[in-house]
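anyone seen this seq b4? input:
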Amino acid sequence: MSSERAKQIQRMFARITRRYDLMNRVMTGGRDQAWRRQAAAQLGQSVDGLILDLATGTGDLAFAVRQCHPHSRVVAVDFSAPILREGVRKAQARGERAITWAVGDALALPFPDATFDGCTNAFLLRNAVDLMRCLREIRRVVKPGQPVVCMEITHPQTPIFKQLFAVYFYRLVPLIGGIIAGDLQAYRYLPDSLTRFPPAEPLKQLMQAAGYRNVRYHLLGLGTMAIHVGEA
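predicted toks r here
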């Protein structure tokens, strides 16, 4: 990612690496790990080959893939080297040897066409500076017909809860981030990134426009989280 916005996002994730996992637990009420397991399960029972976990962060979704699919091998890629190093440290502590770690750009992945038997990503699409290019690049490196699973924060649609979520996400989350992670600016970016991001149904349509087939999604966390699944 060469744009200034991409560089700012990269620096931001480097700053919050130390408290990244803790903030994920706090913001989701401890549900983020269960949601990652649900996302990993969407790969399907027959997917046991080489899986790409893109924007892996500290590796929690990559670990979930390995738990759900113990015969799989995972290539875990992130564009932030500091946060990736935390994932490597966690893998070493777990004795996890079936994950390969690499720094890479989701808009220009260093892999040939049709390399992977599936792809997972969590909280990637909202941060992509070119969403359609990102979706097409993921599809390029996944074998035709194989699953791509995208987990992302989304816009709740229930009227009353929608307002309550807005207060929490736009006002409280930055304050909590400032206290726990010591970075108010980073956790102001988080709500702003959702404001620019399409809701679940339009995102499904964008995936279809990018060439994915059999696209579907389901909502979690009272409609605040969506898992989209499509076939490359």
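The radius of gyration is 17 Å. The chain has one domain: 4-231. kinda curious what u guys think
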